[in-house]
Design a protein that fits this description.
The chain has about 425 residues and is of the alpha/beta class. The chain contains 13 helices and 15 strands. The strands form 2 sheets. An 8-stranded mixed β-barrel has the order 1-2-4-5-6-7-8-9, surrounded by 4 helices. Strands 10, 11, 12, 13, 14 and 15 form a 6-stranded antiparallel β-sheet that branches. Strand 14 and strand 15 form a beta hairpin. The longest helix is centred in the middle third of the chain and has 44 residues, at about 260-300.
Length: about 425
């Protein structure tokens, strides 16, 4: 089963699906799945293309499977497509036994009560392929009978098949079903991948999925990669396995060319190195600037009585637009200044939920206070991990530093910095 829309070939206005199934007018196409870090091809996704019996023109998969649903022939078509894919993969497998075949499973089998027939297992063994070399792709959001889905997953996992959850991040994908299915692979939908290098929110969503997958022992494959920029960004987020037009379009097994794919992967390695050097260089330069800002503010505050702290912060914050907020804590972790913020007139998030902490707020549970005052580590500055700022609603880090004023009292100076500014 293939949800992609074909971009070439004549799209016939009419076709007889029963004739196509009876005459086996279906051919398998394969798209490589590559590991960017290992710089190799790890598998192939098997995709189905219908052929018009008279014109031999390609029938778009979405039309083929839509007609199957209308006529109640989904299971018949699905089995034919799988057999064609397995038959052609058998030839590839004999030369490259380490490759994984990823097969889409029509979710109609769950709702029609035929998911436990063992038909797929029989097909695989008849082709001389080990179940361990086959990943079954399931779109869980299309399954109404969850118990049947769980039963199928448990059964086929016991046979040795890999279970992949398809279209994660698209439509009505239900993340609550991940612990029910316990997939071996999460396939990230093109929706999250498209232009991800330009979309901060997509990056953060995918980072969360990557962290979750790592803890669950689940592999991630990003589908629909079409540009170098998308591929580099995915590598930066720690997504290793990808597939898409950037590396290769789906082809028949006799037209598959692996060398151009590997050449593209090799070139991407150099692009990623350039990206890393640029990003790390920018972050290092920006952090050195912010530490210089911190030092400058410290110098001014150290000569002042606490009643003048707010004035100094207001004067300094206007000079540094990416510092979202400045404030000072005393030795007890209580905020003794206002949260002095930049107000650039831009769009702000809900002020009821996101608003700066007022004077007198308790920060003793914040890591940027705790690590400086409570651990006895003799640290004079601390940079927090990124977090959602309750002052602005943006992703921020807090750069904090110990400060001693003219009276010998200790304070903690805090700068909240927008994380997007660190790598610009």
């Amino acid at each position: 089963m293939d949800k992609a829309t074909l971009t070439k070939g004549v799209q016939p206005a009419f076709f007889n699906l029963r004739e196509i199934i009876a005459g086996e007018w279906v051919e398998a196409h394969f798209q490589p799945i590559v590991s960017l870090k290992r710089r190799c091809i790890v598998g192939l996704e098997g995709l189905s293309r219908g052929l018009h019996p008279s014109s031999r023109s390609l029938i778009p998969p979405k039309d083929l499977f839509h007609e199957a649903a209308v006529q109640g022939l989904e299971v018949d078509l699905d089995r034919l497509c799988r057999r064609k894919a397995l038959d052609d993969f058998r030839l590839i497998h004999s030369l490259s036994p380490e490759l994984i075949l990823s097969l889409n499973l029509n979710t109609a089998v769950f709702d029609q009560g035929v998911s436990g027939s063992g038909h797929l297992r029989t097909q695989v063994y008849q082709m001389g392929i080990k179940p361990q070399n086959v990943a079954i792709e399931i779109i869980e959001s299309e399954v109404a009978d969850i118990k049947e889905l769980q039963r199928f997953v448990q059964l086929y996992r016991s046979y040795g098949f890999l279970i992949a959850l398809d279209d994660v991040g698209a439509g009505h994908s239900n993340l609550n079903r991940i612990p029910l299915i316990k997939p071996d692979i999460l396939k990230i939908d093109r929706f999250l991948v498209q232009d991800i290098h330009q979309d901060f929110y997509k990056q953060e969503v995918l980072k969360s999925l990557v962290r979750m997958a790592r803890h669950l022992g689940t592999l991630i494959i990003a589908e629909g990669v079409e540009t170098e920029e998308e591929a580099v960004c995915l590598l930066d987020i720690d997504v290793d396995m990808v597939q898409g037009f950037y590396f290769a379009r789906p082809q028949r097994h006799d037209r598959l060319e692996m060398e151009p794919v590997l050449s593209r992967v090799e070139g991407l390695g150099w692009a990623f190195k350039r990206h890393l050097l640029k990003r790390l260089g920018a972050k290092k330069l920006n952090m050195s600037r912010y530490y210089a800002v911190l030092f400058e503010i410290q110098m001014q505050l150290s000569q002042m009585h606490p009643i003048h702290f707010d004035i100094i912060l207001r004067r300094m914050v206007a000079r540094f637009p990416h510092v979202e907020s400045m404030y000072i804590l005393d030795e007890r972790g209580l905020q003794i200044t206002e949260s002095v913020s930049n107000d650039d007139g831009g769009t702000k998030r809900n002020s009821v939920v996101f608003r700066p902490a007022p004077k007198g707020s308790d920060h003793t549970m914040k890591d940027y206070y705790y690590f400086l005052m409570e651990t006895g580590m003799s640290k004079t500055s601390y940079l927090s991990e990124p977090y959602l700022s309750m002052a602005s609603g943006n992703s921020c880090v807090t750069l904090s530093s110990l400060l001693t004023n003219v009276n010998g009292r200790k304070y903690v100076l805090c700068l909240d910095i927008n994380t997007e500014a660190l790598s610009e």
